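anyone seen this seq b4? input:
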Amino acid sequence: YPLCALAVSDERPVSTQSTWATTSALAASASPALVMARGHRVQSVPEFPLVISDDVESVEKQKKLWRFSNQLVLSLM
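predicted toks r here
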């Protein structure tokens, strides 16, 4: 009999792997060269990493998010 698919999907990743993945993602986002290599346009971003307030999480409409991003001089295209 084949293995049950649910049994395989219930496995959790090793905590050290998760920690290393998070650390690597943060390190890559702090380097403009690496961010540009991923295809993002970052010429108008004043500094890296760009830190914004938690108020962005309360935005519920995409139209308001676009306005907010334009105020930051970002392009999300």
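The chain has a mean pLDDT of 77. The radius of gyration is 18 Å. kinda curious what u guys think
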